Amino acid sequence: MPTLILLRHGQSQWNLEDKFTGWVDVDLTSEGEAQARKGGELIGQEGLRIDRCYTSVLTRAIRTSWLALAAAKQAYVPEVKDWRLNERHYGGLTGLNKTETAAKHGEEQVKVWRRSYDVPPPPMEAGSEWDFSKDRRYEGVELPATESLKTTLDRVQPYWDAEIAPKLAAGETLLVAAHGNSLRAIVKLLFGLSDEGIMGVEIPTGNPLVIELDAQLKPVSARYLDQARAQPLPQV
Q: Where is this site: Transition state stabilizer (predicted)?
């Protein structure tokens, strides 16, 4: 049975500082490292044998995959990194404190930017401190200036279809260590959630979400390995 394990990276430094992070390459905190190791330990205890790992090109997700695989005693697993699994690009909100931004623009407006499906934040200005155009990771990539969850899904889905889904269809067990919004995009895709339905889905950090799939890659079951930190899941 094809099995997909989704693992949101552990707490990052900007998570701790309550900042909009997006594509900024911040590292894990010591708590985030512990969350990643715990996730890997749970994977190992569950007896899951991972065939391949996918992650983004951002350090917090990459190191989460390394720590989790090592803790699961599967550090040898092949890993593929791709920018299309990056976190959502937060545009002009990048680097701003979330609480201060809510005080400035109003909580309702910030909630729309953060949680709506298809309303992106204001675009990032060219030449911004957080301009990624000179980052060699994105050579040849048409960079977004901002993204909604919808446009995040628009870039995740072709990669899913071309790279990840065929491996699952071959019966592999895959770990995708990525970010809250790129993983929510995958959840929306797999479970066929409506635009409104995905808005209520939150994926906790460092808690492996194990999804078993049928031959058509439709979810048969879904569960978090750490039930004490589980969030509500779509019905299978």
A: 179
Q: Assign residue 120 a region: left if phi > 0, alpha if psi is -120 to 50, beta otherwise?
A: beta
Residue 165 domain-assigned (yes or no): yes
Does residue 168 lie within any of the structural domains? yes
Higher pLDDT, 71 or 111: 71
Res 57 pLDDT > 90: yes
- Is 9 a residue of the active site? yes
10 in a labelled binding site: yes
What is the crossing angle of helices 59-71 and 30-45, to 10°? 40
The catalytic residue among 9, 17, 33, 172 is 9
64-110 pLDDT, tens digit per residue, is 999 999 999 999 999 999 999 999 999 999 999 999 999 988 999 99
In a domain, 145, yes or no: yes
- 8 annotated ligand binder: yes
87 annotated to a ligand binding site: yes
Q: What is the mean pLDDT of the chain?
A: 96
Please tell me whether 84 is known to bind a ligand. Answer: no
Chain center to CA of 47: 23
Q: How many Cβ atoms sit within 10 Å of the Cβ of residue 78?
A: 9
Judge whether 13 is annotated as a binding position: yes
This prediction's pTM: 0.97
Asked whether residue 236 is domain-assigned, the answer is: no
Q: Which of 87, 139, 142, 202 is catalytic?
A: 87
Active-site residue flag, 87? yes
Query: Which CATH number belongs to the domain containing residue 210 in this structure?
Result: 3.40.50.1240
CB atoms within 10 A of CB 232: 8
